[in-house]
Amino acid sequence: MAKSRRGVVAWGRRNLDIEIVSGDRLNASLVDWAVEIYGGEGVSYEVLIKKGNGFLVQGHYKGELVFNGLFVHNNKTCHLISANIREENITLNR
């Protein structure tokens, strides 16, 4: 990892509440969110996540959702499908 990014990672570890949603923890409101963000493909992602071939990473800053990352994987690879970051809500005070 580049030295310039280490501070940002350290800040995130201190300040963000990170949740990983997978399997049966995926609920209807998250599927609705996926359909909005990913344009109707949410049902396919829902099946992958519930089968154990995907997961959603969510980050909260001061109680507000500020990022989402949707990942799908198989036994060899893992791919970031999409990420949504709301930077206007985050001020890095290192």
Note down, in words, how this protein is organized.
With 94 residues, the protein is α+β, with helices and mostly antiparallel strands. It has a single domain (14-89), classed as Gcn5-related N-acetyltransferase (GNAT) (Aminopeptidase), CATH 3.40.630. It is built from 3 helices and 4 strands. A 4-stranded antiparallel beta sheet has the order 1-2-3-4, with helices on one face. Strand 2 (54-61) and strand 3 (64-73) form a beta hairpin. Helix 2 crosses helix 3.
Helix/strand-derived category reads alpha+beta
| Residues in helices, as a percent range | 25-40%
The CATH architecture would be 3-Layer(aba) Sandwich
* Main sheet: strands, sense, barrel: 4 strands, antiparallel
The CATH H-level homologous superfamily = Gcn5-related N-acetyltransferase (GNAT)
End-to-end Cα distance: 18 Å
Which helices and strands, and how do they pair?
Elements: H1 3-15, E1 17-22, H2 28-38, H3 42-50, E2 54-61, E3 64-73, E4 78-85
Antiparallel strand pairs: 1-2, 2-3, 3-4
Short description:
This protein is of the alpha+beta class and about 90 residues long. The chain has helices spanning about 5-15, 30-40, 40-50, and strands spanning about 15-20, 55-60, 65-75, 80-85. The protein has a single domain (about 15-90), classed as Aminopeptidase, CATH 3.40.630.
